[in-house]
Amino acid sequence: MLHLSVALVTTYGLLALAVCALWLAPLKLGSGVDVPPWLCLLVLACASGVATGLLSLQALVAIAVLGALAYAAKRSQSGPLHVFLMVAMGCMMLAMSLHRFPGFVNPPLVTDMVISAAAKPVTHRLNFDKAAAGLILFALFCVPARTREQWREVGRHYWIILGTPLLVLPLGVLVGHVDVDLKLFAYTPVFIALNLLFTCVTEEAFFRGFIQEQLARAMQRWKAGPGIAMCVAALLFGLAHAGGGWPFAGLASLAGLGYGYAYLRSKRIETAILTHLALNGIHFIAFTYPRLSPA
Q1: CB under 8 Å to 46, separation ≥6 — which residues?
Q2: pLDDT in tens, 134-168
Q3: Domains of the chain: which residue ranges?
């Protein structure tokens, strides 16, 4: 059963619209002033969160500090200050994604929901901190596809988008992490939409659009630099999932290689996002979710 309220739908609905607005061109207000639609919607989402008790002043400060660090890091040139700002921003982004800052309520959307009979019940929360952090990082460090040709470039790499889950998920069956479990119920489209906007966009903006891209630029003088950057980002992605056990971390690292390769080949963050979504969506619909319970 979904735990819905007017406060939750309004606040997180505005946040979801802010993520979607990343692909809209800035609004031109004249006199050289451009206002990004995502920023307007993020401000409205924050205002709604404060008004409804889902966010506190501490949460607003954390979002503002991350935004200031990201903006300063983007504007800074190479040198010690640039490195410091990039590291500080990356650490704060990670801390917000891991819910280390107070002031965010992050209410449950579903509680103790049995999705697969062979798995433990799951609780899914709406994480404002992680989604807002990913939104800011994407806006400042990723280049969205806004032309037909750019989206065609994403589509040309369909074989990576589909091939990654077809490699990772059967391997998950072989190592006993999941099993085949076909299912489709009312929560499925909700899961897919929220996973896309609040998980895939955030994680790909951080691991591919930020970490992999910045490492690749730092090692651009080496022929193997982009490949090394892809592998490092994939390993870090796996480590971020180590809480689910080392088999899960290994599968996540392999998946991260697929997401990273999608980004490396297409030069488009959307390819990595769609590859990530394809794996998560197929996992949810066709395999044990989240994973097999220990015997």
Answers
A1: 55, 59, 60, 63, 132
A2: 999 999 999 999 999 999 999 999 999 999 999 99
A3: 1-141, 149-295
